[in-house]
UniProtKB/TrEMBL annotation:
Keyword Glycosyltransferase among record annotations: no
Name this protein carries in UniProt: 3-ketoacyl-ACP reductase
Native source species: Mycolicibacter heraklionensis
Family: Belongs to the short-chain dehydrogenases/reductases (SDR) family.
Gene3D superfamilies: NAD(P)-binding Rossmann-like Domain
One protein family per Pfam: adh_short_C2
Organism phylogeny: Bacteria, Bacillati, Actinomycetota, Actinomycetes, Mycobacteriales
């Protein structure tokens, strides 16, 4: 217990899913949380996004752990509004020790609108740029930046079993690839300042993003309106371990390590929590 005692952590996409899990786990280990989420839908993203009451629930879970939460509704695509929210949160707590760039969408629709590519890139990639850019002035030696990548960063240029995710899926894969590259290069730039930057690449995670009609259709293009049960039968094909998905807490445990001082010399890493998914695609390279 207390592995991040006294730290203040900023989390985007904190209203539900992985972001909420990160907030709760970090709070249980002693961190106060600045929780940011758009709490509104994006037109090309077919499944509904979080609502203000979801962000309130995240705050309640943080406070249940005996820590403080500062919440703000802000769109990661809007750097001005995002910076204002971050500045207000830092003013509330007096410091910022870690940034978790978690906000993301997956507008996976076969034959979907071209705008879906733009929206996926704007949220999943530009949103990371904006969060880091608006936070950097608040970070000091010992700080940690953690970005959410995806197994898709490794599979985007590979045959993923015939999944047809449309322009939004292409934008998602592109965004996650560039996030990985950004983390690598940013880590090198910030290393002299003793600020660490790492990326986590999950496989399927048991969240609302995964359990949505567009995701089900992407996994089961042979069916017009596949049920959850029909889609879940195909989920394990991504992984070497025969499981359909990991839990948000599986990712949160790694976030906790990367935020904590236990990882004080870990930087520039691309860490997969993918049940061996990438192993199925890429041969041993010796790197």
């Amino acid at each position: 217990m207390g592995r991040v005692e006294g730290k203040v952590v900023l989390i985007s996409g904190a209203a539900r899913g992985q972001g909420r899990s990160h907030a709760r786990v970090l709070a249980a280990e002693g961190a106060d949380i600045i929780a940011v989420d758009v709490c509104a839908d994006i037109e090309t993203n077919e499944y509904p996004l979080a609502r203000p009451e979801d962000l309130d629930e995240t705050a309640r879970l943080v406070e249940k752990e005996g820590r403080k939460a500062y919440t703000a509704i802000a769109d990661v695509r809007d750097r001005v509004a995002l910076a204002a929210a971050i500045d207000a949160g830092v003013a509330e707590f007096g410091r910022l020790d870690a940034v978790v760039a978690n906000a993301g969408i997956a507008p996976l629709t076969a034959g979907g609108p071209l705008q879906a590519f733009v929206d996926a890139v704007d949220v999943d990639l530009v949103g990371v740029f904006n969060l880091v850019g608006a936070s950097l002035k608040h970070l000091n030696a010992g700080a940690s930046i953690v970005a959410t990548g995806s197994l898709a960063a490794y599979l985007a240029s590979q045959n993923t079993g015939g999944m047809d995710a449309g322009p939004g899926g292409a934008g998602y894969g592109f965004a996650k690839q560039v996030v990985a590259h950004y983390v690598n290069d940013l880590a090198l730039q910030l290393a002299p300042s003793h600020i660490r930057v790492n990326c986590i690449h999950p496989t399927n995670v048991n969240t609302d993003m995964l359990h949505s009609p567009p995701m089900y259709r992407a996994f089961r293009p042979d069916l017009q309106n596949p049920s959850r049960e029909e889609a879940e039968a195909s989920f394990p094909f991504l992984n070497a371990m025969p499981i359909p998905y990991v839990e948000p807490e599986d990712i949160s445990e790694l976030v906790l390590f990367l935020v904590s001082d236990a990882s004080r010399y870990v930087t520039g890493q691309q860490i997969r929590v993918d049940a061996g998914g990438a192993l199925k695609v890429f041969p041993w390279s010796g790197r």
